[in-house]
Amino acid sequence: MRHALFNLLFVLTLLPMAACHAETDEPFKAGVNYEILPEPVTTADPAKIEVVEVFWYGCSHCFAFETTLKPWVAALPEDVNFVQVPAIWHPVMKLHARAYYTARALKVLDKLHEPIFEAMNLNKKKLSSEDEIADLFEAQGVGRERFLKVFNSKGIEMAVDLAASKQQRYRTQGTPEVVVNGKYRISSRENGSQEGMLKVAAYLIKKERAAAQSQ
């Protein structure tokens, strides 16, 4: 009897230690390294784990982030879908969001993405008018008439409105930020650096993959 009681007490003393060990197994924590969104945001492709970058062309941090982000995105596995959502909290930012979606619709985003960043961050252009943006597209070989038609189309307006809605639901606090699978918002402010932000994103991708596989 005394032997059984001793064994029970020994097990009970180990439980708090096991709990502490379980906590340390989680390298990143909700409320510390990332925020769990109160309501999940619908993803573009439910069959894949979505990673969203919320960005703004006029943000110097977003411009610097490009160097780190590109190789990280290129190395993402097949079950991960990378999406960019332009931030909008000012009328001029809405023009920049239109520029992004116009370049994507015209299938010249790969050609225009970097020049738009450089125009605002290196050449200090504000791109605060339709004409300025048209000049930039024209300089990259996109006909002005073609650009203006798409830039002012209903489809681009709808894409911009959807981006604004998603940004609000992501509870965006600044740029750049990363949202994983419409559930978790990550900022570099809580993780020390942009590289730290991507480490948290990689952890959450694995977490979502494990959850999907266990279903």
How would you characterize this protein structure?
The chain has 215 residues and is of the alpha+beta class. Helices cover 56% and strands 11% of the residues. The protein has a single domain, classed as Glutaredoxin (3-Layer(aba) Sandwich), CATH 3.40.30.10. It has eight helices and five strands. Strands 1-5-4-2-3 form a five-stranded mixed β-sheet, with helices on both faces. α3 (91-105) packs across α7. The two termini are 43 Å apart.
Give a brief description.
By secondary structure, this protein is α+β, with helices and mostly antiparallel strands. Helices cover 56% and strands 11% of the residues.
